[in-house]
Structures
1.
Amino acid sequence: MVDIFALTVPHVALLIALWRLVQRDDLDREGGTEPRPTRPGREPPRA
Amino acid sequence: MLNLALTAVVALLFVIGIRRPFVWVLAYLYIDILAPQKVSWGFLSAIPISLIAFILAFAGWALFDDKRDSRFTLRQGLIAVLLVYCGLTTLGADFPVNAGEKWAWVWKALVFAIFLPLTLRTRLRIEAAALIMVLTIGMLIIDGGIKTLGGGGGYGTLRLFVDDNSGLYEGSIISAVAIAVIPLIAWLMKHGTVFPSDWRVKLFGAALIFSCLLIPIGTQARTGLVCIAVVAVLSLRSVKRRFLYVTLAALAVVVAIPFLPASYTARMSTIENHESDQSASTRVEVWKWTLDYVREHPFGGGFDAYRGNSIRVETRKAVQHGSTVTVEVGHTYDKARAYHSSYFEMLGEQGWPGLIVWLWLMLSGLWQMERLRQRWKRRTGEGETWQAPLAEALQHSLLVYMVGSLFVGIAFQPFCYMLIGLQIGLWSYLQRIESQRPQVRPQRPRLIVPDAVAAG
């Protein structure tokens, strides 16, 4: 019974964490570093 | 039912990874810490899920991940050197079969420690790795904590899910690791974004920390008590009200002592008087043997070289005769005793070169985290307040591990290399962030000449 409880509670938290993680774009791409800086000497692309 | 549930979780992690390959890295962390193949008895134990997760994690990064922000650092180089060196000592090991068995899991832990930082490219990934590590080890800790509260502890008898005495399921190891993760739990409680700080997070975190503190009591491992003392002292660096903290800590100890099992207090008292305890005396003799051994084998004897030791241990026993107590000195012989210290484990198995590289890896981690802490601690801007506390938490975790390592042979414990991987990832990430920040340079005063004047 204790084993089941000890496995269940963190697993529930782990699955919620996974669900929240896959919803977030900043998992794979840092918001603050995009767009990537252009190389020196090059003009940024015009809109 | 349990078997099905664990299989479903592993399958789910593998499936989600198809959409977000970084989840395969998290899957490896989960599998390597919990070892669900040990806990379950069916399908999972029949297939090499750890190796599958390892391959998926690496393939996911190699094929789909953006590698422009990945950096190879000096500490990864040190782990690579250690990996190659361990491979060489395994080839010439004193006990080739046993050394081969240890090498089979050590190489994976070292390769993963090199690989993990390459994937930790964003703040959320660093947090996610820390969170999955804490939640997964939390399963063992919650299990041990509740059983300790229910009186199910005892030296070598605290059963965590299964009757297994290896890796994180071993009493002294889980004792040291449980205390080492406390700073990380505290950081997640305050700075986590997956589970932002609220009363539920604080309640769960506090309960988990309490459970961590129960593990050394449940396992009756003296190492854990030393680690608790270390983490308590280190916490003084960051607490705001130090006097209140010290008072509350002292009060907690006074209140807790009457509730501790008599067997626990009796065992802890042997820390001061180690000569009366055969286990501690044996350790000292093994350490002396190791020093003698490396005089003849300075490059180490390969994994499990301790199997060659044969030692004579002096024991002292107090015997009461009426109103007088006499100390009887005896001797016992022992052989193939483990090192019971990571430092001597590294020295005996990998010799002086291995010990030097390993110490360099550890000490450089403490130094790097201190540098990060100093660099970021005064910043108060948005998104700039989590870095210094995380560096501090990882530094404290490593320090607790290093102190615990004095008495437990955990030089190659995979969980500790995950902590090192996290440190390297944080260092590398913050170095990159710093280099991308616009440099503010003082502007030279320029003479502005009005057009009309310039035209004359």
2.
Amino acid sequence: MSDAQPVLAVRELTKVYGEGPTAVHALAGVDLDLEAGELMVLLGPSGSGKSTLLNIMGGLDSPTAGEVRFRGETLTAFSEGALTRYRREAVGFVFQFYNLIASLTAEENVALVTEIAERPMKPREALALVGLEKRAHHFPAELSGGEQQRVAIARAIAKRPEILLCDEPTGALDSHTGVLVLEAIERVNAELGSATAVITHNVGIAAMANRVVSMADGRIVETRVNAERVRAEALSW
Amino acid sequence: MRLVSALDAKLLRDLRRLAGPAAAVALVIASGVALLVMSLSALSSLQSTMDAYYDRARFAEVFAPVKRAPERLAERIADIPGVRTVETRVVGMATAEIEGFGDPVTALTLSLPETRAPRLNALAMRSGRAPAPGRTDEAVLLEPFAEAHGLRPGDGLTVLMNGTRRTLRVVGTALSVEHVYAIAPGGLMPDPERFGVIWMGRDALAAAWDMEGAFNSVTLGLVAGVEPRAVIERLDALLAPWGGTGAIPRADQISHWFLTNELAQLRTQATVLPTIFLAVAAFLANTVLARLIETERREIALMKAFGYSNLAVGWHYAKLALAMAGLGVLAGWLLGSGLGRWNTELYGAHFRFPFLEFRPGAPPYAISAAASLGAALFGALFAVRRAVVLPPAEAMRPPAPDRIRVDLPDAALRALDSPTRIILRAVLRTPVRAALSTLGIALAVAVLVLAMQWRTSIERIAISHFEESQRQDVILGFAELRPSEARFAVGRLPGVMAMEPLRITPADLIGPRATHRGAVTGMPQGAELQVLAGADGRARAIPEGGVVLAEMLAEKLGLAPGDAIRIEVLEGARPVIETEVVGLVDGYIGMTATMDLSALNRALGEGPRFEYASLLVDPAQEAAFLKATTRTPMISMVLVKRAAKEKFDETLAETILIFIGFFVAFAGALAMGVVYNAARIALSERGRELATLRVLGFTRGEIAYILLGETALLTLAAIPLGWGLGWGLVKLMASAFETELYRIPFDVPPEAYGWAAVTTVAAATLSGLLVRRRLDRLDLVAVLKTRE
């Protein structure tokens, strides 16, 4: 299932906030590979460093030490402009609170990304992937939380990203709606082959992953490969 | 114990956090306040200076010229009921020769009593002393005249009086209450280089002007509360047999008249414009604060959830609004007071007072503070009210986005990219707010249009006067009426290429609505050197019979073409001319009544005569010409138009353009304040969306486009609206500024619109750049973890 080279290679990654005795080590030497096409779940309690790791992998934050390599290029040495280009072309983000643009319809929210991507799918196609083609003309305020999150997923994957990063995608949703969202993530991971990392502190979600990485105190404490993946529709919590 | 309550601590931190918007609100308010304080304090200072000076110097209340009246008539004048003080004197127009100064210098010579101080119109000595009794060669000069030529006590001065050259010794300089605005007859602006006043002892002047035992000018002080009208009637009757040409009340005295006109104009400037400005500033402060507080919705809900009363919440935000507005008021007061003092001094340079009282008075401060704080408070409380009426739980959620009522047409939607859609929908979803911001910017544009066209209007007046109406190079005035043959003598002066006679006869012009004490101008048929020019710049034909009135004069008298007019001539045999108004001329300057010169001479029962001459002079021989005029007896006045025009331009540059500069600066500040706050508030409302877009891979430039695009759109929409409002404002001001001296042409040149737009766009761009700097520092990580 793995290529010769991982999509993202994280090495000795350290992130320290503050200085001196009050310094907080959010990441304390993390090594991790994100392989092409895999679905990885990052588990851990609040403050374990998983969001910091995801932010650095997504080019939103810079580490104190260590490096991240994207297809062999050192991401952590990228300029501001190069990071913007990286996010624009290679990464899809899904946030806990959807972060849709209120004044754009579902379809237009997706178009926002397809307009600036290199070889995007049609916005309608992306919405169909998450089962929302019939809600294309609705504004975010007219959609339920789960629907909004699926629009956010459609927006994230419409550019056919190599990497899909989801930060607590079900955090604001109930179990039933959360499952619908996870189904959508599972489907795009399978159909587009985007290397997907899902952050959650919900242990129940781990069963759908190829690989489960557990973090605590800024370190990876366990890496587990699921011999058998459970389909998202079978999950509940 | 805590020194500051938690809520007040929040207030202080809010103020620090909102330093940018607070500064913008303060800037807008300070502009309005400063302008009002500046204008009103200059006005009240000049007014109180004038009153105090008039009182101290015993400024006369009635002035009467007469050809030659025996001194004993003074006793009969003193017997007129209501007269308290009589002062007779000898006056005459002389020309002065000043070494190294080629242009002709006209001087008014005025007598001082030999052995006592004048009872009226006391001189304020600035240096030296008054002429000693019996010294016929001693003279006191009007200070600005002496300064213009570097003359000091001890210096000599040659004058040509009544055809005789005399050398005088300067013994002092003085300012005079009669010559606060020292203007030559026929001039538009004081020109101390070319017009001066010379005081000498009565005996010396009586000898020079053949007035021994007689006087040719009398001034009166009246008993308090006496109307000058009745006194003037009796005085005119007493003086008529001796060649009185009509007494005038103080209101028509030339210096006073200019001074009061200027004050009236300043009053318009000080009330109309700053009121508009303050209203705009108050309105902007109101909308800005309302928007600012809308962004505090969640905090308000939280305070309520903690149990704070609506009143407590309201007072908290009222204090925030008052702090921001108060800062502006304070800054405006300081700036306005400083500028007001400066402005008063600027006027002091044109209106020569021996002292200046800077009396700003409380009203401008109180009015500006009440208007600004009131408007800010109103805006803040209105917004707070909207927030506190909601149940806390609801208010803690972001406001439900309005359902789009009007959306863009499908074709447009398809043609636009998403960022542009975001911009357009933001405007469509909050139409009221967008309209208010647009209106705010438009008002700044309007004030700019007004400021920018001002100069054009005044230049238009100058062109109408100096080029379209007066086409001569020089106007000569004669001490007495000259017979027609004298024109040949004038024509023989070196360099004279053309000559036209002119007569200006003092007269009362009487219509059904009013009587105007002015003059009738007689112009020859086919005149080319001085013509009747209309607002369009074209010359009107001089009718063979009847009189042509300036529109403003016809309006004052209540006359229209075809109506009969009564003209009571105030000189010579004092005939009454009953004639017809045959036309109106819509020029910008003066209250003119014009007749054919021959017809005027006939009506006066005199042969062909003139007392002024318009000349074209060969520029190569100008110096020789001017030298000759100073040696020609009977020439009492030489007005060189080139010099008058230069003086006009110079004065314009010193006063009006500076004032316009302030308007442009303040209006620019206004536009900047509005745009900055619109963009800043949009940033606080959209920060999350914009950060999300950055995460999604949008560049800084692309999100700046979304944020500033909306502001740019509103600014562009505001410009044509502001042009329209500016047009209306100019119209309003043109009618508010009309005086008897001139009216302001209603003329907005295209470049006024252009510059107003350019200035607004520049102010908006500057604001945009300031906000853009914040945009570049958006925290991309924080936005992912926070709920809307």
